[in-house]
Amino acid sequence: MTNRIVFLDYLRVLACFMVIVVHSCEPFYLGGDGLEILNRSNALWATLVDSAVRASVPLFVITSSYLLLPLTKSPRQFFARRFQRVVVPAMVWIVILSLVFIGMGHTPGEAFGPFVFSFNQNWGHLWFIYMIIGLYLIMPVISPWIEKVSKREEQVYLGIWLFTTLIPFFRQAALAMNGSTELWGEANWNEFGMLYYVSGFIGFVLLGHYFKKCVPAMSWRRTLAIAIPLWVVGYAIVAGWFWAVMPKDFPVSAGLEKVVLMEQSWRFCGTGVVLTTIAYFMIARKFTYSGRFYRTVVTELSKASYGTYLMHLVFIILYSGLFKPIVPTGLCILLTAVCTFATASILSIAFSRIPVVGQYLSGYKG
What we know:
68% of the residues lie in helices and 3% in strands. By secondary structure, the chain is mainly alpha-helical. Strand 1 and strand 2 (34-37) form a beta hairpin. The radius of gyration is 21 Å and the shape is globular.
């Protein structure tokens, strides 16, 4: 217990719950082949709630970076550990979820086929696995630089990365002006534009290390004085764009391209989400209580959070289908998220107790 970083356990639990809230909102604006919003209440609740929790995945990345960088083990040891804790549980749950998909009436080809090149879109949360593995692959490369970089140099790269968070909006401007979303050297035969290598989730990796190395502990007063304005501005961007672009002639039905346009501000590496992520992280650093509740509840939920993540979508489908016909939208989102989080967490912890194979079902981090 003495080696644990207390606030990161709280943060991991929070991020896991936030992911579940994100997916609990989806039945109220997604359906059919794309956008499907039945009424104004569904639209409002999806906008207000989902926009507040888009920082979920970035918080997971920052947590990993804060813990892992700079590397303290050889690349071989590092990758062996990541394979055991991340890749193997993911492979186990890919098989389980594919079998569940077959049980829902689909063919084995429909269930397993997509994994040849990517992930099954019906279990869309699995995209995270590919992204985090990609970040692990680059960590041994950037770790020596991170050990030597100065605060000022790291700030420069973070500044460049923050500029790239505007790219979704630049693409919309380029489309309006030039009829194409291609930017700064991109073409239909070259997807690697000028800022490709300094954009994306790698920025959250640097941000986690920057907080660890360069940002000292702050008082609650100073923390809130910085975090609240960041969150307000970020939330305004995230929710404002989504609501402004959404059609308002309810019930609304449109293709997937409309959803993509609406979700430009919801991009995990978009400006608004980045600002809210920083705000949440700053506040989470103040969670340092390590008493009985932390030792008996928070640490268990934190250690089992990966397993909770891997299995949670099954229970989203179950509880959303149960609550949606009988309770108002806001309450349905809350009940679905809470019940899903509780069920998946309890199962993940229970699986971890199974001798030998338990860690491969739960990804339990002891």
